[in-house]
Amino acid sequence: MADVDTVGTTEEAMVSDATEDAQMSSGDADAFVALSNLLDSITAAPLNRSLHIAHLALCQATPALAAQLSTAQDMYTSLLAVPENVWIPILEEKTAETSIAELDSVAAMHDLFVKAEGDYFSIEILKRHATFLTTVSEITLSEDGISMDGYDEEGIREKLQEIVNRAEGDMSRGSEVWDLWMQWELSRLDKRAGREKQQRVDALHQTFLERIQFPHATNDETFQAYSTFVSTYLPPSVYEETMVQASSARQSALKQWSFRADHEAGLVNGPPAYDAYLSWEKNPKKLVTERVRCLYERAIADAANRRSTEGEAGIAASKWEGLFWVGLIQFIIEHAGDEQLEMSIFSRAIRSVPENGAVWAAYIRALERHGLLEQIPDVYAGALATNLLSASDVVEITLAYGAQLKRLLMGSETPEPDEELFETLSTLLKNAVEKVRSLEGADPRLRLEKFWSSIYVDLQEPSEEIMETARKVWGGAVKQYANSYIAWSLYAQFIWQDLRDPDRARRIYKEAAARNQLDWPEAIFDAWIDFEHRFGTVDEVETAMIRVKQLSEKLAVKRQQEAAAYQAHNAQVMAEQEALHPVEDLSQPAVPMEVEPVPQSQGDATKKRKAEDDGEGHAPKRMRGEELDAQPQSVQAPEASTSASTQPLKRDRENSSVFVSGLSADITEEDLRLLFHDCGDLREVKMSQVSGNYVATVEFMTKDSVPAALTKDKKRINGEEVAVNLAWKSTLFVTNFPEKYDDAAIRELFTPFGTIFDVRWPSKRINTTRRFCYVQYISPNAANDALALNDEELEPERRISVHISDPGRKKQRTDAGADKREVYVAGLARGVKNEELEQLFGAKGRVKEVRLARGPDGLCKGFGFVEFEDEEGAEAALSLNNKEFKKRRLAVTLADARAPTKREPPGTGQGHQAELRNRSVRLRKIPPGTQEAIIQQTLEKLAAVRKVVMKTGTDEAVVECETVADASKLVLAADRVVVNGQPLEVIEEAAAQTARPAAGATSSGMFAPRRAGPKPKAGLGHKGAGGRGGARVSFIAGGAISTTTSNGATAAPVNGSSSTKSQDEFRKMLGGGK
Predict the structure, then answer these.
(1) What residue spans carry the Basic and acidic residues bias annotation (predicted)?
(2) What's the CA gap between 693 and 659, in Å, rounded?
């Protein structure tokens, strides 16, 4: 770390110079005041990066402070690692000032380049460094050149090779540096002759071969340069053989690059793209340690360059940089096993992210692991001196240092502890506890106090004086955290368990139970009663139970008052939101997390399909209260329809659910039901284990129960504190992501911000264009952090939309109601651009978004969607139907998500139902709770799929494919159909239906179908069923055919023949035969 003591002196000089300048320019008085304030702030927190960024910006924006810019740059670069956008102006200015005829000047400039390269990876800096060295060589290597130690030909070659090695990790741009080096080498080669030249030719030949076998973007250009080299410097007789061998040798590199090309192209989108690339590159099957390390370096540099951005983007970049540094450190420790590399990374990391406690703690542990114990005190002091650490960071680094000291203390073979070491450890923890308590948030988990107390208790023979000191630790804790049940519980436990003083413990329980603002009184009540059963007399037990009953009744009244106040406040907030957004009433159910049901048809179809279409496309799971969801929606005539705002909600998951985290492995559903039993009627409790975390969603019958449920936050179940939050506060509504993104890609994108509980997708059985999902974390903080992804450009012209799934902002987080504002456009030219369509349709109304379907080549597939701000714009856009645009006729229609698809495969003469069966497959053994969308995403990797429909009450689903060939692909690839780790059974739908007993089978085994041929359609020349003269064709048991009318009368035999016909003859008749 740089010596921050010199900052004050430098700043005094700057202020003095600025004051002299101020006398010449009184109009810049405000700028000088701002400079003075900034310098005071930097003196107090010299490692605060935002202050240095503001300092540079002020000097650059104020002409009167231009003379101070150099000093500001020197201050910044001496204290912290700075990215290329800071270094490049400095290096360009210094290079222009360097006298390349003077060794000291050249060496100083070279050292400055090396320092800049040590901060962050930068191709631009490496290129400038290489150019500087080649320029120096023109002076030192000319015939009458100036001799300089270290800058002769071998010295410059060695330096250039070091630069090339640094740049090699960038597969996209590393060639820019390699090419500069090779140009210099070839220029030097022409100045040699004889054996010396041949040696250099052989060396460069080997260099070319190594380069074309390394995956990089410009391999073809490198291969062409190699061809020129071979034809120029090697004998013509070996050219063809040499090039054939080289072409074969580079095939592996070309293949490796092809795997990475898309990842590399996507890196322009910033940290999320780097994170996804890293996850892919760290796959154990293809892991190359140096390649991953270089990718981490590039990711860190990219995040560092974005840190200077104002607002949430800069904050997000700062968090990403910290995550990447921690990831690199853990990766190097796990895979590299190189102490020198590990230590160099730590020294760079603490210059880059001195505010990151995880980095400092890992550094301390690394020093202990490598036996460098004497450095730990200075590193710990340096971390605290930054004044940038949060309370949690201070706890983390103190535990790292304290644990090291405790291991030394407990490792002593003498019965008496080392008094000096014991005093050092005690002082360390005492000071750390005081510092943590002075910081925002402090340490509600009391990790330092628990560790501190354990030191006294774990000694072989602790004296009474030592144990009293430990008691004072807890006494101080309950004063600091007076309303924390954790502090009081641990204090009392220490007293009766370690000090063995039940009377004092009883007094502590009584005092804690009587506190009005305790965060979880029930935990203290239970602990007190348990304590009395273990240590008290019968009178003491009775006294405790009476007191607890009195306090519980008082608490119940208080909770009711709090719940009523919360409910009133919530109602007021909702009313204010409705007043601010009066136009956001949507014409579909007001529960966006429920995917829209399939429209109901009339008659029997309504009853048959209703159960399958209700819900969110999950495999069924019967639960309490599920019958409330099973009520069919009534089909109303258009004139009788009502707005969604007046229709009663059948289920309000978002507003009626709370999310519970921090559960222990032994907590059961019954424990949760017991915790919330006094809050209201429960509909469902869903428990899950996510990445080692046990969490649950608790849904009530009505949203009125939620305020009372939120009062259970920070309560304890089986001794473990749980967190209770509104479910929607930890849930994100995510849309406008690339079409290729599936469940795995979304999880990969959002996982860096926290542990994901679930990702929910809409069913595509009706609307195949829906592209949104809900990402639910196990904590609201993670969801808030993930908002940094909002408006990130994941691919060209597509920015992802990420918002908290707030029920009060339905319109901002759902695609509901967009159908009437969106038009479908077909007949587009392949080269059409979003801007061109926006300009064309913008003449008809305000365009909100243009979405084009693009192929792998980035060109339009010929269709897309245009969404307007209002319905009027979409209606007006219909006038563009059949308009000529780019020499093609456009087809413009409303993008009605509920309109039945018109795509049908070529007719086979078998009828629609037969064709549908032939291009469908049936899946079995589907795990409970599986989403339709997840199944469809899995299958789409194997074949073209239209939709997936779960079968209610079973573990089966029917998959409708685009063609019969696609259905065959799925059957043949059955061993690769795995969903949620469960292999599924895949069979042809026709075979599945044949395997089931026929509904109309007779005792003689003859098949008597209820209806032959396709259903009659009312209004198309057919009579309707039921009372409209409809008829049914049936096989008679003897094989004859009869027709039965709707009133029960039997019509004449088919075809007017009085004779009976066999089934074979009937099949011929249906097939067009006689």
Answers:
(1) 610-627
(2) 13
